[in-house]
Amino acid sequence: MRSAKAEFDRRGVSIDVVSFAEPARLVRYQEHHKWPFVILADPNRTTYQALNLKRLSWFNVFSPATLRLYLKLLREGKKLENYGKDDIYQTGGDFLLDRQGNILFAHQSQDPADRPTTTKLLEEIDRVKTFDASKIG
């Protein structure tokens, strides 16, 4: 996602990351990763509830797809990180929202490896922008 940030910027889209971790933990996480995104803390999971993001079963957390992803990352030289007491069962998702907070695209992950590709997100942005332009004309 970091490498594609310019494509999101070119489309006028900001990337905001929402985490259920406490703000102090997010500061350390951001210092380590240096992501070029806004990272917001939601320890009460208000956003997670509003977006209907559920908790996963043990089998979904350690699904074959997730294990393949972790193995791929280890082969690429990524290191295992200890996130302490973070909730590994909380699902995530990827959403496109307009400035009024309307959900234009929603992907609720079914396991930790279930994420739309950057290409898919960019296609959805282009689709939404085309739809909005057609409403104006």
Number of strands: 4
Percentage of residues in strands: 5-15%
How many helix segments? Answer: 6
Mean pLDDT: 85
CATH topology: Glutaredoxin
CATH architecture: 3-Layer(aba) Sandwich
The rough form would be described as globular
Q: Could you spell the SSE succession in H and E letters?
A: HEHEHHHEEH
Over all CA atoms, what is the radius of gyration?
16 Å
Q: Approximately how much helix is present in the residues? A: 40-55%
* Strand line-up across the major sheet: 1-2
The largest pleated sheet is described as: 2 strands, parallel
Describe what this molecule looks like in 3D:
The protein has six helices and four strands, in the order H-E-H-E-H-H-H-E-E-H. The chain starts with a helix and ends with a helix. With 137 residues, it is of the alpha+beta class. Strand 1, helix 2 and strand 2 form a beta-alpha-beta unit. It is 42% helix and 14% strand. Strands 1-2 form a two-stranded parallel ribbon. It has a single domain, classed as 3-Layer(aba) Sandwich (Glutaredoxin), CATH 3.40.30. The mean pLDDT is 85.
Describe what is shown at a glance.
With 137 residues, the chain is of the alpha+beta class.
